[in-house]
Write a structure and sequence with these properties.
182 residues, alpha/beta, seven-stranded mixed β-sheet, three-stranded antiparallel β-sheet, 3 helices, 32% strand, binds inosinic acid, binds magnesium ion
Length: 182
Amino acid sequence: MTETPVTTIEVVFAGAEIQSRIRALAEDIRDANLDKLIVIPILKGSFVFAADLLRALHAVGVRPEVDFLTLSSYGRGTMSSGVVSVTRDIDLDVEGRPVLLVDDILESGRTLAYAKDLLTARGASKVLTCVLLDKATRRRAVDISADFKAFDCPDVFVVGYGMDLAYRYRELPFVGRVVMGE
Ligand code: IMP
Ligand code: MG
């Protein structure tokens, strides 16, 4: 018998768990005393995380300027590919200022390393990184680690909380893995 496969999403990190880690991250970022901070979420995957993190930063008294950098990686399915390029650049001048890059997942490290190099070359006084999920370091292709991270992530493809699979599941309030049923 042929039936349409049932797709279910198994929770990996629950919404409440994520929010409580974000509150702790916001305190850590505040304690880093980054004067004249510019926060730059890397779109698209980080948009939900960044929205919650920015509000948590506000709650602990951090008043950053915010701009957005859209990057894309060539030819990716569910695996990181390699070549990173700028799809939409920031407008702000980062020269002499500390920058906090916000991304959803650190995997091969190519995306964050690219963004870090770009902003360093433009004269940012310091470029720090904050990620929701840090995947197994065996996938790392570039020597980079996150300055702030919410969770170590199991080596599975995850969706939700901003992250997608073919443009779907971004709206989920938790991080989950896709399980294909029979
Ligand atoms: P990296 O350049 O290999 O570090 O790739 C990081 C980027 O790949 C993340 O910002 C995500 O956009 C994407 N990515 C990696 N793993 C996943 C996943 O499990 N789900 C959704 N996106 C992912
Ligand atoms: Mg991304």
